[in-house]
Specification:
The chain has helices at 15-24, 54-58, 83-95, 130-134, and strands at 6-12, 28-30, 38-44, 47-53, 75-79, 99-106, 110-116, 122-128. By secondary structure, it is an alpha/beta fold. The model has no long low-confidence stretch (mean pLDDT 95). The protein is 24% helix and 38% strand.
């Protein structure tokens, strides 16, 4: 059965630093789609993060590329399988040079935290009680 994929494209200031950051979070790099201008970071079987030099990224848009350290361009939300996995990913991001952003969100049935990567792109990580989702 076909599973739709999502490719999230982000402009980064230092491609090598971004690759290192995301591999330190536990993700892998797909070398088949990686060169000196872009890298495919495999988040899951259906989610790929394409980190690109700003020059490469500019080839895909006529819009101005925002400074993601001062402007919000997108909020990327990732699910986690448990509260502990939320904490683990955010703590790994901070240890790899990212910054925790915002406050912990604990609603009992849903728990989340967020971090900014090296370029200020915001990633929200959330766990939701499966019994609530199935209801």
């Amino acid at each position: 059965m076909y599973q739709q994929m999502i490719f999230v494209n982000l402009a980064v200031s230092d491609l090598d630093a971004s690759k290192k950051f995301f591999t330190e979070l536990g993700y892998t790099i797909n070398q088949q789609f990686t060169d000196e201008t872009a890298s495919a970071v495999v988040i899951s079987d259906t989610i790929v993060l394409m980190v690109m030099t700003k020059e490469k990224y500019a080839g895909f848009t006529k819009k101005t590329i925002v400074d993601s350290t001062t402007h919000s361009e997108v909020l990327i939300a990732l699910s986690a399988e448990s509260r502990e996995k939320v904490d683990e990913l955010v703590e790994r991001a901070v240890a790899a040079g990212g910054t925790e952003t915002g406050e912990k969100q604990d609603h009992g049935f849903m728990y989340g935290r967020a971090f900014d990567d090296l370029d200020g792109h915001t990633f929200e990580v959330a766990w939701m009680d499966p019994s609530v989702i199935e209801s």
